[in-house]
Amino acid sequence: MSALASEPRTPDTLLLRNVRPYGEGDPVDVLVRHGVIAEIGAVTADGVETVEGNGAVLLPGFVDLHTHLREPGREDTETVETGSRAAALGGYTAVFAMANTDPVADNAVVVEHVWRRGREVGLVDVHPVGAVTVGLKGEKLAELGTMAKSAANVRVFSDDGHCVHDPLVMRRALEYSKALDVVVAQHAEEPRLTVGAQAHEGEQAARLGLQGWPAAAEESIVARDCLLALHAEARLHVCHVSTTGTADVLKWAKARGTKVSAEVTPHHLLLTDDRLSTYDPVNKVNPPLRTNADVEALRRALAEGVIDCVATDHAPHAVQDKDCEWSAARPGMLGLQTALSVVVEAMVRTGLLDWRGVARVMSERPAEIAGLPDHGRPIEVGEPANLVLVDPDATWTVRGAELASVAGNTPFEGMELPGVVTTTLLRGRVTAGRIPA
Ligand code: DOR
Ligand code: ZN
Question: Is 0.85 surpassed by the pTM of this model?
């Protein structure tokens, strides 16, 4: 029996009929054979399993550089399996699982465990992120080389949830990352400026009596790290950019030749701190929701390429950690299944991005940043069939309880959003959507 035949529900050949690559031109058919795009055009193929696209937009499968899968340690909120399912339903074919698990992914054993679970589940390529410092404590560098050379082949390192705030530690991490040809992703937050912080430092926080999280806490670390990366000639990735000032710093650093890339979350592209007046902790997130002016600046920066990509910061939390008073609640919100729709709402409907642009920020750039050779590829004959089909005209109403994640903490609850992922293919296999009979 061949390897393909032994995998259930894996057709050797699959036909996507009437689809529009990048939303451009007249519908075409795309024939996928053995996980690779074999033909594009008017395909005649009898007796082949077929997905009817009805003119849907075909894009390269999305790549999320920033996902919290919570395994090991908090399987009551998410697992590699449930998170992979949410990712596939959201149109993703690869995700990067953050290291702030319990135990922390700061060694080869933990990263290999996460990697192996991802392979067993098989719905999305799960790439573990390794911690930069032992126990995320910011003091001693973790064994980056051992994790990079492990079976998990770690390519991205981050203490996300925490900032690598000691400049000497950060400098060393950048130097090692250069030697290993990997990338350090920084959660930029100067901790001395965010002690007790609960919300964006501004009018809203003042009115509600919440301790402020100043923009400068993010911007000062990003400026510092850009300079460290520039001098070390190392690559730096900035997680969840949330302020106008950070976008300005990135623009300056890129113009100076710094090898810096950056991501923005869907929630920072759509929501503002106006949300806080209800005191509903579903809106609590780190970095916090900012102002309307910040949202507009982030959208512009993403459209112009100052910010490279969208990453979800998918952060599932248990009911008891969200359904409580504001100050006791944990920061974070679900993102995998709503990301595409929020990007359509914030960027496509506003005319800031077309579908090629969506492919760039949700698939091509993140794949490049992480060095994934098989994702974010052009839709061309001979390329791997990591693909997503999106119905651009359909809308859906978000219900946290119906999402695939164990947790249900979505800030988009009850919102009607545009753009529905109808089918996701990982190496030609349907991982979400209707599996053809
Ligand atoms: O809101 C957040 N939640 N921001 C982070 O940096 C960490 C994340 C989490 O792990 O819940
Ligand atoms: Zn973070």
Answer: yes
